[in-house]
């Protein structure tokens, strides 16, 4: 488990050269959007091949980044929050075996994103950027998603889908079509 964004992006940059011999698109949902953005920043700083497009989903632009401490919450509150966010069946959280196996991993991810401080950009990314969001996502406003536009010097696409934070489950085919 990796609980710091810099450690995660350093590890990813280390393995990227084997994949940079062909065009690619980076897609990141929620925390993955921040990871994708930070990976692009690292690749750009190291003069490595950038993706053909960065697609960020269900995540506010870095200038709206918010710290948090849910990763420190007592287990009942942590589980309640996972249910509220959606896509985690309550039945799973009732399983002590599942909680022992998965909650440390999920808490680690929350620690990573809740303690994340975006890398200051000294120039915009020279690649197209798309931001996707669900119109009923209580974690993100359309304005916060639209502000990703300030991070690219190329084209920007904002696509709003019907749905909540996990809109992409229902709109898988459309998300894939728009991303590539």
Write a structural description:
By secondary structure, this protein is an alpha/beta fold. It is 43% helix and 12% strand. It contains eight helices and four strands, in the order αβαβαααβαβαα. The protein has helices at residues 5-15, 31-45, 75-85, 90-93, 96-114, 142-146, 167-170, 172-179; strands at 25-29, 53-57, 129-134, 156-161. It has a four-stranded parallel sheet with strand order 1-2-3-4, sandwiched between helices. Strand 1 (25-29), helix 2 (31-45) and strand 2 form a beta-alpha-beta unit. Helix 1 packs across helix 2. The longest helix is centred in the middle third of the chain and has 19 residues, at 96-114. The chain is globular.
Widest sheet: strand ordering = 1-2-3-4
Helix content: 40-55%
How far the N terminus sits from the C terminus, by CA atoms, comes to: 30 Å
Q: Give the biggest sheet.
A: 4 strands, parallel
Structural class: alpha/beta
Question: Which terms summarize this structure?
Answer:
180 residues; 8 helices; globular
What's the layout of helices and strands?
Layout: H1 5-15, E1 25-29, H2 31-45, E2 53-57, H3 75-85, H4 90-93, H5 96-114, E3 129-134, H6 142-146, E4 156-161, H7 167-170, H8 172-179
Helix pairs in contact: 1-2
């Amino acid at each position: 488990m990796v609980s710091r964004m810099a450690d995660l992006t350093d590890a990813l940059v280390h393995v990227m050269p084997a994949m940079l011999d062909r065009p690619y698109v980076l897609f990141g949902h929620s925390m993955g959007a921040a990871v994708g953005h930070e990976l692009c920043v690292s690749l750009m700083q190291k003069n490595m091949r950038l993706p053909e497009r960065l697609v960020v989903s269900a995540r506010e632009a870095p200038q709206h980044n918010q710290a948090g401490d849910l990763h420190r919450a007592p287990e009942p509150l942590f589980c309640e929050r996972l249910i509220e966010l959606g896509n985690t069946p309550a039945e799973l959280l009732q399983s002590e075996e599942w909680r022992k196996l998965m909650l440390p991993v999920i808490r680690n991810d929350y620690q990573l994103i809740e303690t994340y401080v975006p890398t200051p950009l000294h120039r915009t990314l020279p690649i197209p950027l798309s931001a996707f969001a669900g119109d009923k996502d209580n974690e993100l406003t359309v304005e916060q998603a639209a502000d990703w536009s300030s991070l690219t010097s190329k084209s920007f696409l904002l696509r709003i889908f019907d749905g909540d934070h996990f809109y992409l489950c229902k709109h898988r085919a459309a998300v894939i079509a728009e991303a590539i």
